[in-house]
Amino acid sequence: MRSSPRFTLSATTLDAPNARELARFYQDLLGWPVRRDEPDWVEIGPSDGGAGLSFQTEPLFTPPQWPSTRSGQQMMTHLDIEVDELSPAVGRAVALGAALADFQPQDDVRVLYDPAGHPFCLFVRTGAGT
Prior knowledge:
Blueprint: E1 11-16, H1 19-30, E2 34-38, E3 41-44, E4 52-57, E5 79-82, H2 86-96, E6 99-100, E7 109-113, E8 119-123
Parallel strand pairs: 1-4, 5-8
Antiparallel strand pairs: 2-3, 3-4, 6-7, 7-8
């Protein structure tokens, strides 16, 4: 019997006008070290070796639009980042270069844009099993 090949998610990759600048933002936000640094490619990840984030320079990058519209570049993915306190985490993210989105669909989640314009969410986990 033939066994299935092993698959391991190693990273999610975000395009940006400047990979190093966006990597620096997430490195400061998450406290993750750089795993690999090349001219147009940077990888960061948790010290425990889990899946990380990669950043790729894309000269034709167009920031996604959120909330989506038919005429704009639609968001294809976003990052959900758990924090222990929402308000101080939002303040820290903004101090590092993020921008708070005008539209906030939930009281217990904050949608922000990273310096390249990718939406990401900060949230506090509540209740057992959520």
